[in-house]
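Quick log. Single chain, no ligands specified.
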Amino acid sequence: MSHLLPRRTSIRTRIGGAGLALVAIVFGMLASAGVFAGGTALAATNSNAEGEIHLTTAVKASPSLKTSEMYPFGKPTEKPDFHVPSPSGSGSIVPTIDTKTTTRLYGNNPYQEAVAVTQHQWPAALPLNAPNENNNVPDRPWGLTLVTPNEPLTAITATPLVHFPDDAPILYVTSKGIPKITENEIKRLGDTGISRYHNVDAFLVGAAANPGVEKKLEELGLKYATVTAPNVPALANTVDQLYGSIENPDTGVPAMENGMENVMIGSMQSYKYVLPATHWVSHMASGLLWVNQNSVPEGTIEALKRRDGHARIYLFGGPEQISDAVAKELSQYGSIIRITNDNNVAFNANPKDTAVDTAIAFAKMWDPAGEVGWKITGPGHGFTVVNENDWQGAVASAPMSHMGFHAPLLLTHSSSKLPSQLEGYFKSVAPTYLNTPADGPYNMTYLMGNWNELTWPFQTRIDYISEMNNRRLWNTTTGSTYSDTQPAG
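-> predicted structure:
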């Protein structure tokens, strides 16, 4: 009986308390007698002088008919029922996957990830002579920063070049040339040239400065500058000098509007901890330099000396990443602030510190003296989430903090489940309302990479806990409003 198709019957009656009650009684009797064991439908009609409403309520089949909790009415086909085309006239634009509060920037490799970001941030829909195309915020980038996807320290080192007045997002090339996907994106973007630096179109950093890349750029008509050095700390010093000369030609040192000369420093042995800094230096004028856990390289010392003792130095990680001895040595060049989940007053013993914890700590912190930190302790913000093993995605997504939602980087060590501390942070900044959800604010989270790096359930979990909630409900225990975000002062 359970394998038979559901029978369907209709029971009609005039609307009225007694009539509907009769329907319910008859249905209950038939069901108890087993008449509807295979499933059926119940219909009731509400009639008046102007018309009638016919309501049909399905009665599910016998429990022995196997159904899934995920698909109570049957599993849909795996193949999409339709395809989202690229916009007319922009055939290289790749459609992405969104939910209410999340956006997937999909890529199966670093080249695709970088293109997913630049396509999202720079529509390049206006001609080069459009008004404000050379002013903040442009429709096209002013330049490009080219790096290879197999040198994490070099790629991280290059990220200060993303920020204005360069406006030069990251794209990946190889040690022999430019792959087709990157070449097509260079053509689509059609950068304007960096007016404050000889109208250069591209910086070739590290191994990206090779004959194959140079030849292709020349064929395309791009003007480029190569940025190389014998080692990573020296390269960071070179990038610091280059960006400083463009952003602050008076002193040659990157500086905030209040004159603060901020420097982000990571350990070359623990580069995952400094990945959040890639998003900060693309957002605000800062230096990015390197140390070893127990020593300070000469290139870093040279860069700090240019700041004449006025550097405000941010160390990413605890003593296991950058030792206390190194911190003390660096203090002769300026003030030291550690980015870590530790608190010397609040904790009796040092808590465990991970790259995931460090990213959250940086998203929350605010140092008014240096004007450093995202100070996100409430809703109304953007975030970028990357698997900590996908450093290429972290570097490529730096422009997500450069423009748009200005979304700081958060990390995960799991591809399928939010780490407890990351889940807790998302819940703490989830928006709630007192009067109407139309008042906002709202959050948006960007997820980098393919479905293996960050799974679909991972994405939908963030969406679920980031949605607007009614603060007046008795069971709403998390979330906040704009007023809960730390003030700017």
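The first helix runs from residue 17 to 32.
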